[in-house]
Amino acid sequence: MKSAIEELETKARAAKAASRRMAYLSAEVKNKALHNISDDLLAKKNEILAANKIDYHEAHTSGMSAAMLDRLMLSPERLDAIARDVLAVAALPDPVGEVFDMRTLPNGLQLSRKRVPLGVIGAIYESRPNVTIDISVLCLKSGNAIILRGGKEAICSNSALARVVQDAAIRAGVPDGAVQFIENTDRALVNQMLKMRHFIDLVVPRGGAGLIKLITENATMPVVSGGVGVCHTYVDRSADVNNAVAIAFNAKVQRPTVCNALDTLLVHADIAERCLPLVAAEWAKAGVEMHCDERAMAILKPNSSLKLTPATDDDWGKEFLSLVAAVKVVDSLDEALEHIERYGSGHSEAIITEEYEAKMRFLDEVDAACVYVNASTRFTDGGQFGLGAEVGTSTQKFHARGPLGVKELTSYKWIIVGSGQIRP
């Protein structure tokens, strides 16, 4: 174990040294690295998919859940999409060096703020091999060095992808050491990373509640985490029923294993008799199981083809990550807001309504990273928001919130230009 810790410290020192050069690396070099990565993902597709197949087989044999297996799996289509996302990041403006908030003080001092990288980002994540690429390219674009520590369930996939990133970056002129990958999967190394505040400037965890809790409680450096995504869609009394049905279906079914999928459907009592059977009929086509409160159950029970289960207290505030949704009938917007305040995780919340006042109250009063009106919560994603990709989705308020893109991986320094001023 000692050698593994020594290896970790060696890589952390190398990343810190590389970060000093990354801070002033040209946009051309960074973009070239990203183009190389995109090209190499396609050129080495067979090698990457073969590595992923090993991970998937091991995970399936060990009994990994369907939701986690879906996150682990790579396919030619998913690799193509990842490669496109890399190019989308490359096409973004370089955030480093941006000067903003310029002003001149009465004494003639010229003040401004200049955007700078954070330094070294430590990424600790589970299952999703795409995170290896997403975080790497966002860190490279924003001038940060990166230390990647994935989970053992994706070690072959992550190793193959990290090699692609490292080789492509070095060929472009990125400082050697800017992208580090921790091959050893011993969980003790996570605790060691969390003590390395002299080398790592920010830690980003991606994984389940247990991993995030471990990191947020033990890290000696700042952490940006997303936690659990418990997402509600509230159908107000004035909702367009066709919109409500389409949005509820998309939010639950389009990809149920991710954090921005619908978990709880709240429906106003005035529209429940019309809306709920239509939503349930569409969900039934995809095999959605509905955990219903008493009033929702009374409306839906006559349809014997539906998968209905009486809701329990544990269903409220639960992230299902599967084709399961909790359903509740409420008497007012106030009741919906109170339910979301009590059970929401601060991730993504939506209202379906045609009333202006209801829209504004929902936008103003719901405390979440992303708040939607008449749209699916599935759009909470760096790529969908025009960020190219994302490091993760933060449900915190400091220092960033929502999908984390290149700007969220920067800070700033004050620039003060004078002409001989001294303080009286």
Fraction in helix: 40-55%
Task: Give me the Rg, rounded.
Answer: 24 Å
Number of domains: 2
As laid out across the biggest beta sheet, the strand order is 10-9-11-8-7-12-13
What is the N-to-C order of secondary-structure elements (H for helix, E for strand)? Answer: HHHHHEEEHEHEHEHEHEHEHEEHEHEEEE
Question: Main beta sheet: strand number and arrangement?
Answer: 7 strands, parallel
Choose one word for the global shape: globular
Strand content: 15-25%
DSSP strand count: 16
Poorly predicted tracts of residues: none
| Corresponding CATH architecture of the largest domain | 3-Layer(aba) Sandwich
Q: In angstroms, what separates the terminal alpha carbons?
A: 58 Å
CATH superfamily of the largest domain: Aldehyde Dehydrogenase, Chain A, domain 1
Characteristics:
2 domains; Aldehyde Dehydrogenase, Chain A, domain 1; seven-stranded parallel sheet; Aldehyde Dehydrogenase, Chain A, domain 2; 14 helices; 16 strands; 424 residues
Description:
With 424 residues, this protein is α/β, with parallel strands linked by helices. 43% of the residues lie in helices and 19% in strands. The chain has two domains: 2-224 and 404-417, Aldehyde Dehydrogenase, Chain A, domain 1 (3-Layer(aba) Sandwich), CATH 3.40.605.10; 231-379, Aldehyde Dehydrogenase, Chain A, domain 2 (3-Layer(aba) Sandwich), CATH 3.40.309. The strands form four sheets. It has a seven-stranded parallel sheet, sandwiched between helices. It has a four-stranded parallel sheet with strand order 5-4-3-6, sandwiched between helices. The longest helix is centred in the N-terminal third of the chain and has 21 residues, at 2-22. The chain is globular and about 75 Å long.
